[in-house]
Amino acid sequence: MLIIMTKHALKLKISSMGLFVMLQLLILKCLPGCDASVLVDSTPKNKAERDGAPNLSLAAFDVIDNAKAMLEKSCPKTVSCADVLAIAARDVVLLSGGPNWSVLKGRKDGIISRANDTVNLPAPSSNTSQLIQGFTKRGLSTKDLVALSGSHTLGFSHCSSFLPRLRNFSATHDTDPTINLQLASDLKRKCPEPNSDRNAGQFLDSTASVFDNDYYRRVVGGKGVFVSDQSLLGDYRTRWLVEAFARDQGLFFKEFAASMVRLGNVGVVENGQVRENCRVVK
Fold it and tell me: What is the DSSP string of 82-120?
């Protein structure tokens, strides 16, 4: 029943760009802990996680709200928002042509949501060492890092996340030397300075509504949009995985599904609550 409801809500409400933000909603949220605290609204006395700087581009909260409302009518106070979010992320991948995996249930919803807790989330400007350190702290491996980075196959980014690579990059290079020259030229055209178009940006691979391994093929070709993407090719600890996933989509699908299961077990709350409204802690 839950799978039917989340898929129904997704099909009704979500666009191809929304598929990415929905998947990132789970991945970014589960790095600190899979307790759905990112869904909580801010109050006059508390700035919540969803309003922390790294989360301001997240969207599709209404999809989770709709699925939860449908569930509450059928089985009130039973299924947590954390479980709804985990299953919705899996359904996003399935609807986009990606792999399936079994989502473990029984999570509780957290009762604390603070914007300050988002300061250590991975940033587009992070290098591989920083990314590995962040994942290791949460019990996730280097393979998990590279596999979960593949979620960018559904991705879109606004200019602000990659603009530092395009101009005044360093004392010796105006443009990041690891970026493909044609891609750099295209990005400069889409993101001029000054830029009055707040919606301007770039898809993170060439098949942005399809879950596939095109992201890795682009990184191998120097076409990773973020520093964090392209750095995976430049580090010996991750390069072999990027190249393997670029060659073999089936291998990527297998490892992505396994990593999503492990991610879904990070920071699971056992003594929380089951929110009736995902936006409100009682």
Answer: HHHHHHHHHHHHHHTT----PPP---BB-S---GGGGTT
Q: Quick one: tokens of 52? A: 């922390």
User: What is the pLDDT at residue 91?
Assistant: 85
- Is 272 exposed, middle or buried (CB count within 10 Å of its CB: 0-12, 13-18, 19+)? buried
pLDDT at 155 over 90: no
Q: Look over the chain and give the mean of its residue pLDDT values, rounded to a whole number.
A: 86
Tens of pLDDT along 124-152?
899 999 999 999 988 999 999 999 999 99
Stretch (H or E) spanning 241: helix 236-247
Tokens of 274: 């089951």
Report the 10 Å Cβ neighbour count for 120.
13
Report whether 127 contacts 231 (CB < 8 A): yes
pLDDT of residue 5: 45
Asked if 23 contacts 151 with a C-beta cutoff of 8 angstroms, the reply is yes
